[in-house]
Amino acid sequence: MQRTKAVHASSAAEKLFFAHALLPGGWARDVTLTVENGVIAAVADNSSSAGAEIVSGVALPGMPNLHSHAFQRGMAGLTELRGETQDSFWTWRQLMYRFIDTLTPDDVEAIAAYAYAEMLEGGFTSVAEFHYLHHDESGAPYGDLAELASRIASASVETGIGLTLLPVFYNFSGFGGAAPVHGQRRFINDPARFLALLERSREAIKPVADAAIGIAPHSLRAVTPETLNDVLNTVSTGPVHMHIAEQVKEVEDCLAWSGQRPVEWLLDHVDVNQHWVLIHATHLTPEETTGIAKAGAVVGLCPLTEANLGDGIFEGPRFIEAGGAFGVGTDSNIEITAPGELKQFEYSQRLHHRVRNAVARRSGESTGRALYEHALAGGAQASGRNIGALAIGKRADIVVLDDTHPDLCGVTGDRWLDATTFVAGKPAISSVYVGGKRVVESGRHLKRDGITERYRRVVKRLASL
């Protein structure tokens, strides 16, 4: 029997009892989690349910979402009409620029709240918000530089989702310091104003029960070496996220500018380490793939968005064999589901390599569990918060699977994860806790009705413009 003592003694403890739970050492039965101030203070298996809230189902550590652009949830489904030329990421980007032309702070908050409620229902208990919408419709800063960051924080508070806020440093429109275009006017800051925005954003996230802050130099095409260094030399703490090597054109433009590929240039010129998160990284050489792993950085994969945008396929098996860390995110939020992102990643590897069970590397290893545990560890590292396991000192973020679901009722252990990932998906999730507090019950966010009504009003107004 596993018994552990509480690490907090300052407040009344709450206890949650689960018949089955995935602990760091594997599956356990009759597990009691003692929660104090939102943190797991004690864990006991083969325990009694006396004095605890009995929660039906299978407890998993909550999945971190390591990459989201919340506002893009409002344009999901609006870009699936072919244009006069062959559509690509770059034509999609022009539509995105037009979408943001009239978004107000109230719109941003309503869309974010809706996206975050869906994330919780879909098995994500925290979000790393890659937040690059900073200014008003004309491109002028708000009186409060962090006006829109504050709206992201408010959406986090309302829904209960954990938050890593990543204010985006967006300085230029292309490699070598190309001047910004009109559609980017709401993103652009020079280093001095960005650092002021960052400091104000630290204040903006204080109402969130458990939050962290980092920075996000948008991409190598959106900064210069000089402005990137200005920011990196000033900010010494927190995660650093960057889009990189997402598109072939981006790689070609970087080669034309520097003679090196994007990841190659970054590894040669910047101290890439365990605090870094490289988003997408879909176009790498074998040397770049192993170089990221050796640096200890996380690769942030958004398989549903990468498929939607025609980005490409990340080289999974080589990266995993090199000891690389990865997590998953929802990026443009076209479909918000943790099992769906994991499944899409595995299926992309199967299609690319023409094999089955590509992420699992050992004979007899469960692919569902391998995917889940890789994404837990990478997502927690990328979030810069103490999350990602049902263990002492970790945030009590818990996803509960419905073991009476037809696809789960006849299996146990790792098969629960296999069935959820590859068959049942989001409907297998019955309840979700963040910081030990229930936010989803019977698959539905507790505040869904009000959040949905506000979202409806926003998208109807935007559709009428």
TrEMBL record:
Gene3D superfamilies to which the protein is assigned, alphabetical: Metal-dependent hydrolases, Urease, subunit C, domain 1
Listed cofactors: Zn(2+)
CDD domains recorded: Met_dep_hydrolase_E
Short name of any one Pfam family annotated for the protein: HutF_N
Keywords: Hydrolase, Metal-binding, Zinc
Keyword Metal-binding attributed: yes
One term of GO molecular function: formimidoylglutamate deiminase activity
Enzyme Commission designation: 3.5.3.13
NCBIfam families listed in its UniProt record: hutF, PRK09229.1-2, PRK09229.1-4, PRK09229.1-5
Protein name: Formimidoylglutamate deiminase
Species the sequence originates in: Tardiphaga alba
